[in-house]
Amino acid sequence: xxxxxxxxxxxxxxxxxxxxxxxxxxxxxxxxxxxxxxxxxxxxxxxxxxxxxxxxxxxxxxxxxxxxxxxxxxxxxxxxxxxxxxxxxxxxxxxxxxxxxxxxxxxxxxxxxxxxxxxxxxxxxxxxxxxxxxxxxxxxxxxxxxxxxxxxxxxxxxxxxxxxxxxxxxxxxxxxxxxxxxxxxxxxxxxxxxxxxxxxxxxxxxxxxxxxxxxxxxxxxxxxxxxxxxxxxxxxxxxxxxxxxxxxxxxxxxxxxxxxxxxxxxxxxxxxxxxxxxxxxxxxxxxxxxxxxxxxxxxxxxxxxxxxxxxxxxxxxxxxxxxxxxxxxxxxxxxxxxxxxxxxxxxxxxxxxxxxxxxxxxxxxxxxxxxxxxxxxxxxxxxxxxxxxxxxxxxxxxxxxxxxxxxxxxxxxxxxxxxxxxxxxxxxxxxxxxxxxxxxxxxxxxxxxxxxxxxxxxxxxxxx
Length: 464
Known about the structure:
By secondary structure, the chain is an alpha+beta fold. The protein has helices at 3-17, 36-46, 48-69, 105-109, 136-202, 207-242, 269-275, 277-298, 346-412, 418-453; strands spanning 32-34, 74-83, 119-132, 250-252, 303-314, 328-338. It has a 4-stranded antiparallel β-sheet with strand order 2-3-5-6, with no helix packed on it. Strands 1-4 form a two-stranded parallel ribbon.
């Protein structure tokens, strides 16, 4: 493999993995320095995803309060003025003859009755209490189940947020490592070109070697620019996750290191699915669907309400002739039994629809359990593979370091050319880049395994 192809391969590795924040060189006073714990804390306290999930829990709490209010008595007050311009009950006290001044006896008879009164004021207070309603208990249970589901949804969202932040953070570290290797490769090509020019000027080299070195260097520069652009785009993604201003420089302080602790023992996939927050949230949805079926059945059951009304009524002759002596009391109470008889077979259709919805939620729950078990097994296998890759890449780095040291020694003794040294150095850079990539893949796989478990760190769940 030629030097140009080896350098191109190194830059290709950089481009493939440069999906996160590259090494930044901002002003020290303006730089936002973040460890992985600090990044998770910012995502948990300032990230929109976590805030939205917490707001869903708050909404569910208000729905529980609303459902409970239906079981409590309601009290309403009203004040009404009615102006009557014409009524069949109005009886005019008109004399039979102009000279006759005797009042109309019929009008006098209805003088204190409300019929046909021109002005009417009514002040009323009404209390209503549901004595028996088959839907009240079900509605309260639905609200409680929904609140529980929202809490499990919050846990699931926090686990997803941690996975995204950890993955972006590790890729940022990897991008910094690969960018450094790419820069070293470009610098090596530049040094090699300079030495070939010196050899040409000294008469020990050829113009063809200089041209090859120039072509190799010029081919690497645009690839490095592309890698920097890709890294800059990835920087915006991690800033979005941790809510860092887009214009602020960002520096990651946690080092990208190989895992020191041994792998934890595998967990039974059925246990994983039983403890996963997403599965628990779907179980609450099944309970809600079951309560909806009960509500549909309750539509066939009578309901009993109690109502009491206390009112004061006044019929003044003038609009604003209000006083405390002419108010009449209107106080009554009632029990109402509502018996459903026929509503066009809507209740039957609602019941069938509710039962179908229950079966659908049960199917979704079964699918989710299978998906969670599969996700866990895949994540566990990926982490095991990544750990094996770290061991293999570490051995390759040791071998490449040994080859480079021996090549330099041979060059000092005049037994190797400068091209041999450059090729050995490039091989060492590539092996180090591959090792960094293997370490990053392990941490990403470990984040995926934690995501499959539905776990999130304490940094994402601060006290509210």
